[in-house]
Design goal:
Layout lengths: L2 E7 L3 E8 L2 E9 L2 H11 L3 E7 L4 H10 L4 E4 L1 H8 L7 H14 L10 H33 L10 H10 L4 H33 L2 H6 L7 H11 L9 H5 L5 E4 L6 E5 L7 H26 L5
Helix pairs in contact: 1-2, 5-7, 5-9, 7-9, 9-11
């Protein structure tokens, strides 16, 4: 009978527990490098059946590297495993690794699909663009707030209009300009980087046939389409189309104890990168519908 291995992964070290036929045969610790872990596992477990670890910031790297090393790596749902690990009287990394090995033996776990590096690159690109957009908005609000303190009200406007109005207000305000203009330089740099990331997203969307198909939907642009494609990856990962909505957390909650039974808002659980893209696409579609409705109303003849 083969061995079942549990890994409690942290940024520095990883605790290892190896079990066989219901008992622990070895446990130890080594640096959190999947190739080093693979050598250690092969040394103490010649016939590994499952190598189990929880979801976390290193799970994609660990899964693909351990799989490339020929080990049966398996990433499991951390929230599900936490229910079991929390029952341990003495919670240590070694005990957590042993409990994970027990889960591997019994099969009482929820396996999680590890994303490919290509999909993670797309998610990283979209995430970096979103972060820079947030920084740009924060800088804009910060500049407007600071100016109000000195009685300078910045008119509405974005882009070049914002820059022109700001420089016009700062004329004769030497001391204040020494504080605001460096913020404006960072604001310009952030916008330039956002434009560069946007061009990369558009190029990635043009290279994906699935993304181009999704972009034909009203309100669905390149960012929504490429984010959805990167999140889904392969449609064969889902049994049917109904399960796709539940996966990013777009299904409603349900509360049904005894005689009470009512549904709530969407859970927003699951893939954090998928449902905001779908929500944004839906908002864009609704906005298009509102604009089309307004145009049709404007074209209707006035009645007395």
């Amino acid at each position: 009978m083969g061995q079942h291995i549990g890994l409690d992964v942290s940024l520095k070290d990883t605790a290892i527990a190896i079990r066989q036929e219901g008992r622990r045969i070895w446990r130890g610790k080594c640096p959190s490098d999947p190739k080093t872990l693979a050598r250690t596992i092969r040394k103490h477990a010649p016939e590994p059946q499952r190598v189990v670890f929880e979801t976390g910031p290193l799970d994609t790297w660990f899964f693909h590297t351990l799989t490339a090393e020929g080990l049966p790596a398996l990433c499991i749902e951390a929230r599900h495993a936490q229910k079991i690990l929390g029952e341990t009287l003495n919670k240590t990394d070694a005990n957590d690794a042993d409990r994970l090995a027990q889960l591997a033996e019994t099969g009482f776990y929820k396996a999680v699909r590890a994303k490919s590096f290509d999909a993670m690159l797309i998610r990283t690109l979209v995430g970096a663009r979103t972060q820079l957009l947030t920084i740009t908005t924060q800088l804009t609000n910060q500049i407007r707030t600071v100016l109000k303190t000195f009685g300078l009200i910045l008119p509405k406007g974005i882009g070049r209009v914002f820059d022109f109005n700001l420089r016009e207000l700062l004329e004769g305000q030497t001391q204040l300009a020494q504080i605001i203009l460096p913020l404006l330089d960072v604001w310009h740099l952030s916008r330039e980087r956002v434009a560069a990331f946007t061009r990369q997203v558009l190029a990635a969307a043009r290279q994906s046939s699935d993304a181009k198909l999704l972009m034909t939907i009203p309100g669905s642009g390149a960012i929504t389409a490429i984010s959805y494609v990167a999140a889904i990856e392969t449609p064969q990962n889902f049994r049917n189309s109904r399960s796709v909505g539940a996966w990013p957390g777009l299904t409603t909650r349900r509360y049904q104890p005894r005689e009470v039974d009512f549904g709530g808002r969407i859970s927003r659980r699951g893939q954090p990168s998928a449902w905001p893209a779908l929500r944004g696409g839906d908002s864009g579609a609704n906005e298009n519908q509102r604009q089309n409705r307004k145009r049709s109303q404007d074209l209707e003849p006035a009645t007395a």
